[in-house]
Write a structure and sequence with these properties.
Radius of gyration: 20 Å
Low-confidence stretches: 1-28
Number of strands: 2
Structural class: mainly alpha
Strand content: under 5%
Oligomer: single chain
Largest sheet: 2 strands, antiparallel
Number of domains: 1
Mean pLDDT: 89
Length: about 230
């Protein structure tokens, strides 16, 4: 009787994934919370100039000299290197299947896939890439509000919660402790340029067909994050 009571109490103390608070469930249709819009639009304009005059030319030149399969392979390798924050956040969100997939894919691709250059886990074994889980999503799952929308120099869109979550992701990445600062900057910069080169036409299409690019980027980001957290 005593054992049964202990087991019942223990099971109640472990949060069930279905019982996690979903702060976006009733917020998706609301107006975006953007009290810092005046600041954000200025930084957004700066980031567009930085993209136009620095990142896009670099990505265009990179794309011209790099074969498409190698670009994709480098993208695969960067994704493979970032496994630990994704794995930990899957566990914190009680997404144990995702954690298992991340572990299996990392082991297969790090060995048979030559340090992650080739996605052997998917092409040979049918192990699909799970949804990316990050610390910002984990905060949301445990009830943290998103806070204001935020645009910072040379960074992708954020909310206040996701900005703090990004610091958590950095803290969970062992590369930030094992590699010298110059290597970390080179890795992050290479990832950004490679990713931009893979999306040149997509970005150009959005810029050419969108009248209010700031609002479009903000709304798309907030909707994407809401969907990722709900799932």
């Amino acid at each position: 009787m005593h054992v049964a009571a202990v087991e019942e109490k223990s099971s109640e103390s472990i949060p069930d994934r279905e019982s996690f608070y979903d702060p976006f469930a009733a917020q998706v249709e609301e107006e975006p919370y953007d009290p810092w819009e005046s600041f954000n639009t200025k930084i957004f304009a700066f980031n567009r100039k930085a993209d136009q005059y620095v990142l896009k030319p670099l990505a265009t030149g990179y794309e011209a000299v790099m074969p498409d399969p190698l670009e994709k392979g480098i993208s695969n390798a960067f994704h493979n290197l970032g496994v630990l924050p994704r794995l930990i956040n899957n566990l914190l969100q009680a997404k144990y299947q995702g954690a298992g997939l991340e572990t299996g894919r990392f082991l297969i691709n790090s060995t048979l896939g030559i340090a992650g250059l080739f996605d052997v886990a998917k092409t040979m074994f049918g192990v699909e890439t799970p949804d990316v889980e990050d610390t910002g999503q984990t905060f949301a799952v445990y009830g943290a509000d998103p806070g204001p929308y935020l645009v910072l120099p040379l960074l992708p869109p954020l909310t206040a919660r996701d900005a703090v979550g990004s610091l958590g992701d950095l803290a969970l990445d062992p590369a930030n402790y094992l590699l010298p600062f110059s290597a970390i900057v080179g890795e992050r910069g290479g990832d950004v340029v490679n990713d931009r080169s893979l999306n040149l036409e997509l970005f150009q299409g959005v810029e050419d067909t969108t009248l209010d690019l700031y609002s479009a980027v903000r709304d798309a980001y907030l909707q994407k994050r809401a969907k990722a957290i709900r799932e």
